[in-house]
Design goal:
The chain is α+β, with helices and mostly antiparallel strands. The chain has two domains: 136 residues, Glutaredoxin, CATH 3.40.30; 190 residues, q2cbj1_9rhob like domain (Jelly Rolls). 21% of the residues lie in helices and 27% in strands. The protein contains eight helices and 25 strands. Strands 8, 9, 13, 14, 15, 17, 21, 24 and 25 form a nine-stranded antiparallel β-sheet that branches. The longest helix is centred in the N-terminal third of the chain and has 14 residues.
Amino acid sequence: MAQTAVSGGVIALGDPVPWFSGRTITGAQIDLHVDAGRWVVLCFLGSLAAPPSMAELASILNECAAVFREDHCVFYGVLSEMPTDAGILASISGPAMGYIVDETGEIARAYGAEGSRRTFVLDPMLRAVANIAFDHADGHAAVLTGFLNHLPEVDGSAGVPLTAPVLIVPRVFDFDLCDALIDLYKRQGGEDSGFLLDQNGKTATVVNHALKRRQDLVLVDPQTRAILRDQIVRRLLPPIERFFQFKPTRMDRYMVSCYDADLGGHFYRHRDNLNAGARHRRFAVSLNLNSDYEGCDLRCAEFGRQTYRAPAGGAIVFSCGMLHEVTPVTRGQRYAFVPFLYGEEDAAVREAMNAQLQSGETHYVGGLDRLFPDAA
């Protein structure tokens, strides 16, 4: 079942398009928001049993094969029914090409493409930059292939260099504190960590090493947590308030995380606040405890392929709604403190979302996450 935002079926060029989720003919899960950071082609083909649809698809694939690359432009054919020759399409599917079955027509309606075959091209921020009907006077396939073959590389998609809205704050944790946290991790070790995923209306923690490989040590000692909280409040909150105009009052997660090159540590592109159990999160913090490693940097795909790294003891702060990834660590181990910041209204949202957590997940109990416990 597709999940779409309401658009009324009218999408003007320059508009952000509705996000949706669906499955391809091979069973792969597609979440449009994860495809940000590259050009996206959504070709509403209707039924491939109709001769025009198959002819248009063949023309596009013949003329644009070199365009469809995972790091540049991805193609999705949206079908109104499962095709009889699904095996052929499955054989040419891959990271840069897939075919989504939209039997209910929900995706097509959201894009104004129900009963009206057309192709949308989206920019790396998922805004419509082309809307080409199959009955275009100059020929749908000809216009589309001409457009696609002149797309710039992703880093040049805006015409000027882009910088992600991340805040880098040095000297948040003392170096001695960084070393102590690393030593604690090495003594006690970490556990394989997963990520939150909504399944059948419930949020659960899922482990998938293809998407994330990281080990975490949860910090439970009250004195240690108080020391960390104190330095966050005194040294990180003031610049967040100044530059992001937001005053956090709560902090989720006290843990030391380790990305290990020997294990292939990384975290594939994702957003931190989409799942029911994560909607309270406002800003993510990635505070580096060491610098003697290679790779394992922050990349924000919607703003190009540039990477960002905080110095040891320093933090990167960014919106939980921004698509981001942690690139693979290629040498050594990266240790980091990785909490989320939010406010009082968000804490109420978090408590309400307890009902959406799958059985076995830890439920939120307000109070232990306060950044200013004495004031409370």
